[in-house]
Write a structure and sequence with these properties.
Blueprint: H1 3-13, H2 19-60, E1 64-67, H3 73-84, E2 89-103, E3 109-116, H4 121-124, E4 131-132, H5 143-157, H6 159-164, E5 170-174, H7 175-181, E6 188-199, E7 202-216, H8 221-224, E8 227-231, H9 232-238, E9 247-252, H10 258-268, E10 273-276, H11 277-280, H12 282-320, H13 322-330, H14 335-370, H15 393-410, H16 412-419, H17 423-427
Parallel strand pairs: 3-8, 5-7
Antiparallel strand pairs: 1-9, 1-10, 2-3, 2-6, 2-9, 4-7, 5-8, 6-7
Helix pairs in contact: 1-14, 2-12, 2-14, 2-15, 12-14, 12-15, 12-16, 14-15, 14-16
């Protein structure tokens, strides 16, 4: 062991004449630890919220959407084949967007009718993860239970199957929309379309009675309050559209690459408009990104405050050990050796504080992931009723590195001052 390391450890761990120095050292270690814990937990919570929000958005929107389709069945199938030639495209599904009025037990409400293919929709969106048999159920279903529920609801939504079995045509309502209409699964609602039909008393709007067969609960009020899912073939009939659809939903292998894939498809499909889920919700994710950056900067100040405690501790230690430093230099210790002794102390404080912070931070994240500490009321959070959390190891590495570098940089000044102590001046009154 080099003598610089030995002396540095001895100064750091030994009992000192002035106990306030040791106390400040422990405060510094605790400050660094708390700062790293706060950074790891807060950024993991922000990542979890972002992932849940993304999943909820993709639950109602495809990764990429091709708009502007008003053709027959053959044209739509040909377009789907062209889209599938892209290497990133996995599945496609036609859909229709229409505005209509829904009337239930309470006042009528405007709704955005999304006509989907029940057999294909679960491949291009995450709708199967958000279908429920009741409004805001108390307990979240397991993965197996959710798969059974969604398969049952989507099968019941099929227009040809309902017609074959002589059942009422079905509709899936957003949870907040169903609550506003005062209906639950099993009740009937009236869909009042903007299309009219001629009667002896003049033009009257088309009205279709539908049975509520399930609810869509994404946790995003902007979607749950307006969306209603109906078989696209029934929407074609209600709105007298023939075989027309208004778009094709596309799922890709990596949702994060949606903007790039959309741009490439736009070049290929010049006659249509191509959009992606990220661009449609760009403002939300930009806001979250800025909030995360601001939170990181604010919490990094905790580490910075602890770093100033390190400066105080080392400066007081230098003052206490002035005579010892002078003796060491008289025995042949170089300025570089003295510099190393005191820098090692600051580095060890940073290392211990960072390691403790990472360990405790990951421990707290593990507790949040495995135990339902805080239960969130149903319907106010995207995706689920418990705190989401996503650990990003790259961000943890960056946090640890920044914490260590702050501690390293603040040791330079006290160590530099110690290395420039002159033995003659320090020992002249001894």
């Amino acid at each position: 062991m080099r003598y610089e390391l030995f002396i540095g450890l001895r100064y750091l761990l030994s009992r000192r004449k002035d106990r306030s120095i040791s106390f400040i050292t422990w405060i510094s270690i605790c400050g660094v630890t708390l700062g790293v814990i706060a950074l790891i937990v807060s950024t993991s919570l922000m990542n979890g919220f972002r992932d849940n929000l993304r999943k909820a958005i993709i639950g109602s929107l495809p990764h990429v959407t091709v708009f502007g389709l008003y053709g027959d069945k053959n044209e739509i199938q040909n377009l789907e084949q062209r889209i599938k030639k892209h290497s990133e495209v996995l599945y496609t599904a036609p859909h229709i967007f229409k505005q209509a009025m829904l009337a239930g037990q309470e006042l009528p409400k405007g709704a955005l009718i999304r006509g989907i293919d029940p057999q294909k929709e679960a491949r291009v969106t995450e709708i199967a993860s958000f279908l429920r048999e009741s409004i805001y159920p108390a307990d979240q279903p397991t993965v197996e239970e959710q798969a059974t529920i969604s398969e049952k609801i989507l099968s019941r939504l099929s227009y040809p199957e309902a017609k074959k079995n002589r059942k009422k045509d079905g509709v899936i309502l957003g949870a907040a929309l169903a609550q506003g209409l005062g209906v639950v699964p099993g009740d009937l609602v009236k869909l009042i379309s903007s299309e009219s039909r001629m009667t002896p008393v003049g033009d009257v709007p088309r009205i279709k009675k539908l049975e509520v067969i399930g609810v869509f609960e994404s946790g995003i009020s902007g979607y749950d309050e307006v969306l209603a899912f109906v078989d696209y073939r029934l929407v074609q009939k209600i709105f007298n559209m023939g075989e027309q659809v208004t778009g094709i939903g596309i799922s890709i292998s990596d949702p994060e690459q949606a903007q790039e894939v959309a741009a490439e498809l736009q070049v290929e499909l010049k006659d249509y408009m191509v959009n992606d889920w990220a661009s449609e919700n760009k403002s939300i994710f930009q806001l979250m990104k800025l909030e995360k950056l601001a939170l990181f900067i604010v919490l990094a100040l905790i580490v910075l405050v602890a770093a100033f405690n390190i400066i105080s501790s080392l400066i007081m230690l230098v003052l206490e050990k002035t005579k010892e430093i002078a003796v060491l230099k008289s025995l042949g210790a170089t300025d570089r050796s003295i510099l190393s002794i005191f820098m090692l102390q600051g580095i060890m404080i940073g290392v211990f504080g960072t390691l403790f912070g990472v360990s405790f931070g990951l421990g707290i994240c593990g507790i949040i992931l495995n135990f339902n500490i805080i239960e969130i009321p149903p319907g106010v959070y995207p995706g689920e009723n418990r705190i989401p959390l996503a650990i990003d190891w790259i961000e943890i590495g960056i946090t640890a590195f920044i914490s260590f570098m702050i501690c390293f940089l603040v040791t330079i000044y006290p160590a530099f001052k110690a290395s420039h102590i002159q033995p003659v001046e320090a020992l002249q009154y001894e």
